[in-house]
Amino acid sequence: MTSKEKQNTEEEEQEENLEIEDQEEEVPVEEKKKLSPLEELQEQLIEKDLQLAEQKGDFLREKADLENFRKRLIKDKEDSVQFANQRLLKELVQINDNLDRALDAPNASLESLREGIEMIQKQFATFLKNQKVEPIEALGKPFDPSLHEVMSQLESEDHDENIVMQEYSKGYTLNGRILCSAKVVIAKKPAKATPKEKTKESVKEEK
Asked: How many domains is the chain built from?
C-alpha cells in the first residue's frame, strides 16, 4: 500500500469516528409536556393540600405540647401548696405536742404549769413571726378603721376620744396586709349633765 493510499484510509477512519461521536451526542430530548390550565390548577391544589396537612400536623403537635405544659404547671402548683402546708403543719404539731406534755405532767403545780404555757406561747409567737405574721399594736392608739374593729365605746375622762382603751382580741398582719382586725373598745367623752340632773345632784349633796 502506498503512502498516499494509507493517508486516505486514515482520513476515512477519522471521518467515521467523527460521525459516530456526533450520533452519540445527538440524544433525543423529550420536550416537557405542556399542561392545560385545569391540570395546572389541580397540581396547585394538590400542593396546597400537602402544605395544609403539614401545617395542621405542626399545629396539633404545638397544641399537645402546650396542654402538657399547662398540666405540669397545675401539678407543680398543687405540689407547692401541699409542701407549704406540710411544713406549717409540722411546726404546729410540735407546739401541740408541747401543750400535751404540759397538761399531762404529773403533780404539776400552778406555777410550773404557768411557766410551761409561757414557753409554749413564746414558741407559738416565734412560729407566727417566721411566717411573717405580726401583731397589730392597738392599746393607747387612735382608732383606725383599717386596723381595728370597734366592739363598744366607754366614757372616759382619762382618755382622748377614739383612743383604744381595751382589746378584746389581737389583730394581725401577714406580710404587711391585714390578716384579722383587732377587736377593741374605744373611749368617748362623758355626756354633759342636763340642768335637771345637776339639780338632783345638788340636792343629794345637801342631804
From this structure: 2
